[in-house]
Design brief:
22% strand; 580 residues; 3 domains; eight-stranded mixed beta barrel; Beta-Lactamase; elongated; five-stranded antiparallel sheet; TIM Barrel; 44% helix; Alpha-Beta Plaits; 21 strands; alpha/beta; 22 helices
């Protein structure tokens, strides 16, 4: 592209009501077309009068097809301005349905790309723009953000970076399909464009995440702009799911820039991302500004990330095992594999401090493969020594949605020789409730291999029980929060009894987690629970230090209070088959 200088691109937004044929343009569009609002309103068919005659037929065909199909569209065409100048435009839009059953309206953006011709123009678009929305892509956005940060430091002006993520966007794709999802993204981009200044920069970073640079904009102003953007998106990008109109909500994180030395585009995106995820964790206004508290949180996270990479490379991680016992005779039937980090300064670090960091920074794959390999190797070693113990390994949803998820498990079994029926993969209830659909193909494929699946930390309510009908689990691990109070609180006992009873009806095994004292042990046996795990039977230890002698029993199996079980199951809508 030697000798090609990028022209300044002008963006405008528009709406076209299909019922009334009323057209609304942003101020920028009037400037692009060289007309004033009064002239535009007086024209009989202003758009057709402005489109170049040679392009009119193709322009009309593409727009009409989009209206009929409901699909997003993009068309490049020329216009002839009243002053005789010819401009080249790219128009992008999508159909917004009318909840009242009317024809709806088209909403979109127009970009003036005059001066970009032929091959050079195509290369510029491919290199700089998101093909769906016309906003800048991530690479180009990083360049623009770095430039604005440099200008802010030079001039003393303060700017703001906004990261916007659509809430529950997966439900749109899952319910309506990806074509409808693309239409939402197109309308979101148009809505954002409509509220931005000419000096602002919009980009789609990927998926349903957008970013905006606001030069010369202090944090208070940035919050006002963010609120306007959220309102615009909700108004112009709603969808219909199951017959109900649902506005698209956004979570917005704001990172001010220009007042501190050492700021880079990458660090600002990390800061705005952290603020945005704070909104996701604590829904409220939907807007959060990065502050000093978050700065300390981000610094700690980046430090853990760097040290964890080193730990994986230098094998500072180790796997410990906690026995799972059978209440039939007190003997161990398997062990859960748990990862520990032997930090050179801090000593042993528990998974709660680093698993979430591994998921966020992309290390969970390497970490998960390490634990799986170690666990399978140890289970095979027990098998060779005459102990037929299964091994349970926790798996992250991020591991399950990877294309190589099933192959990684198959490879670990093949390398160690472990029979698949001796491996159980555990996934937490909260992760599955968040969005189970992307994990289902891998779960089914793993079941076909002969691997068992367990739902961990189970017991959050009626939605939890619904999972047992839809997903291919073999085991339920009852959340420790219910086991803690099983000997003192009737509700906890009733919930645990209901889980055990329902699991029996569904032919699922039940493991009680976090058993710590003899009273809990006795209650679980009386309720008819078959397996238990907790400090009472053994703390997590490396395989060589593990005690596998079992636990002596002095309680006969029974069943919980049938009245309590029936009442709890009635409340959550599960048919009770327990009789008094």
């Amino acid at each position: 592209m030697s000798g090609f200088s990028e022209p300044v691109a002008s963006h405008g937004t528009w709406e076209y009501d299909l019922a009334s044929q009323a057209v609304r343009w942003s101020d920028t569009l009037y400037r692009i077309h060289g007309v004033v609002p009064e002239e535009f309103a007086a024209a009989r068919d202003p758009i057709r009068e402005l489109v170049h005659p040679a392009d009119l037929e193709e322009y009309s065909r593409i727009v009409e097809n989009a209206v009929e199909s409901g699909s997003p569209f993009a068309v490049q065409h020329r216009i002839v301005r009243p002053d005789g100048a010819i401009r080249t435009l790219i128009v992008r839009g999508s159909l917004m349905a009318d909840p009242g059953g009317g024809p709806g309206k088209l909403i979109g953006t127009t970009q003036d790309v005059t001066g970009r011709t032929g091959y050079e123009e195509q290369l510029w678009h491919l290199a700089n723009e998101d093909s769906l929305t016309g906003a800048f892509n991530r690479r180009r956005f990083l360049e623009e953000l770095a430039r604005e940060v440099a200008v802010a430091h030079r001039t003393g002006e303060v700017g703001a970076l906004l990261i916007l993520d659509l809430d529950r966007f997966k439900e749109v794709n899952d319910s309506l399909g990806h074509v409808a999802g693309d239409g939402v993204l197109t309308r979101v981009a148009a809505a954002l464009h409509s509220r931005l200044r000419v000096t602002d920069t919009l980009a789609r970073l990927g998926g349903d995440e957008f970013a905006i640079v606001l030069p010369s904009c202090r944090p208070v102003q940035a919050c006002r702009v963010a609120a306007e953007l959220a309102t615009a998106v909700a108004a112009h990008a709603s969808v219909q799911i199951a017959g109900h109109e649902r506005p698209i909500a956004v979570s917005i994180g704001i990172a001010p820039f220009g007042a501190r030395a050492g700021e880079t585009a990458e660090t600002l995106i990390a800061e705005a991302d952290l603020a945005m995820y704070r909104v996701k964790r604590s829904p409220g206004l939907g807007i959060e500004v990065f502050d000093e508290e978050m700065r300390a949180e981000l610094a700690a996270k980046l430090e853990i990330e760097a040290e964890l990479r080193t730990a994986i490379e230098n094998r500072q991680l180790r796997v410990v095992f906690q026995p799972i016992i059978s209440y039939a005779d007190g003997s161990p039937v398997g062990c859960e594999a748990l990862v520990r980090w032997r930090h050179p300064v801090r000593g042993e670090v528990g998974p709660a401090e680093f698993i979430h960091v591994a998921e966020e920074c992309g290390l969970i794959g390497a970490l998960g493969e390490f634990v799986l390999g170690e666990a399978c190797a140890q289970a095979m070693q027990w098998r060779r020594s005459g102990r037929n113990l299964s091994v349970s390994v926790n798996i992250s949803p991020l591991q399950l949605v990877r294309e190589d998820a099933v192959e990684n498990v198959r490879r670990a079994l093949r390398r160690t020789g472990l029979p698949p029926q001796l491996l159980c993969l555990e996934m937490t209830e909260t992760a599955i409730l968040a969005d189970a659909s992307p994990m289902v193909p891998a779960m089914r494929a793993l079941k076909q291999l002969g691997i068992r699946l367990a739902i961990d930390d189970f017991g959050g309510g009626s939605s939890s029980f619904g999972l047992l009908r839809m997903l291919p689990f073999d085991l339920i691990k009852v959340d420790q929060v219910f086991i803690e109070g099983i000997a003192e609180r009737a509700d906890d006992r009733a919930i645990t009894a209901a889980v055990i009873s329902l699991a029996g009806e569904l032919n699922l095994g039940v493991i009680a987690e976090g058993v710590e004292d003899e009273r809990q042990h006795r209650e679980l046996i009386e309720l008819g629970c078959r397996f238990g795990q907790g400090y009472l039977y053994g703390r997590p230890k490396v395989a060589g230090e593990l005690e596998l002698e079992g636990y002596s029993l002095a309680v006969q199996p029974g069943i919980g209070d049938p009245t309590q079980i029936r009442e709890f199951m009635r409340q959550i809508g599960i048919p009770a088959r327990v009789r008094a």
